[in-house]
Amino acid sequence: MNIFFSGSIRGGRDDRDLYADLIEHLERHGTVLTEHVGTENVEQTEAAAGITDGEIHDQDVEWLRGADIVVAEVTTPSLGVGYELGRAAETGKPVCCLYRPDSAHELSAMIRGNDAFEVIEYRDLEGVESRLEEFVREYR
């Protein structure tokens, strides 16, 4: 199973460690095409490699096309994550959005109001693992 994981990069990296933990959990079920989202200094690594914004866009869209499911951590608002979710919705791919309601950011109505997205509210990694397992198994 190919899994597209989406999380904020340029919108804020406060949840990078959580992304890494979620990606590690998802890797038990398949290949996470976007494991770099959970790495430290992802922007600096891309810049050092000379990767352009256009190349980042094209690669992400290609990974999205190749994914069986999409899992997005949406607590930190991100234009890129929203764009990826919109593209996923257009393709009809199963989408799971993870959101921590105790954050300073309210979840967008465009996410919560989309019946095609499964929104899972949680407080910590332990509180979301079993529900994430159910989502992955449903679409395996």
TrEMBL record:
Residues binding substrate: F4, F5, S6, G7, S8, I9, R10, Y19, E84, S108, A109, M110
Q: What class of enzyme is it?
A: hydrolase
Keyword line: Glycosidase, Hydrolase, Nucleotide metabolism, Transferase
Q: How does it assemble?
A: Monomer and homodimer.
Q: What is this protein called?
A: Putative 2'-deoxynucleoside 5'-phosphate N-hydrolase 1
EC numbers: 3.2.2.-
Name the Gene Ontology molecular function terms of this record: 5-hydroxymethyl-dUMP N-hydrolase activity; identical protein binding; transferase activity
Job of this protein: Catalyzes the cleavage of the N-glycosidic bond of deoxyribonucleoside 5'-monophosphates to yield deoxyribose 5-phosphate and a purine or pyrimidine base.
Q: Which domain of life is it from?
A: Archaea
Q: Which Pfam families match?
A: Nuc_deoxyrib_tr
Q: Known HAMAP family for this protein? A: Nuc_phosphate_hydrolase
What's the catalysed reaction? a purine 2'-deoxyribonucleoside 5'-phosphate + H2O = a purine nucleobase + 2-deoxy-D-ribose 5-phosphate; a pyrimidine 2'-deoxyribonucleoside 5'-phosphate + H2O = a pyrimidine nucleobase + 2-deoxy-D-ribose 5-phosphate; 5-hydroxymethyl-dUMP + H2O = 5-hydroxymethyluracil + 2-deoxy-D-ribose 5-phosphate
InterPro entries, per the entry: 2'-dNMP_N-hydrolase, DNPH1, Nucleoside_deoxyribTrfase
Family under the similarity heading: Belongs to the 2'-deoxynucleoside 5'-phosphate N-hydrolase 1 family.
Instruction: Give the GO terms filed under biological process for this record.
Output: deoxyribonucleoside monophosphate catabolic process; nucleoside metabolic process; purine nucleotide metabolic process
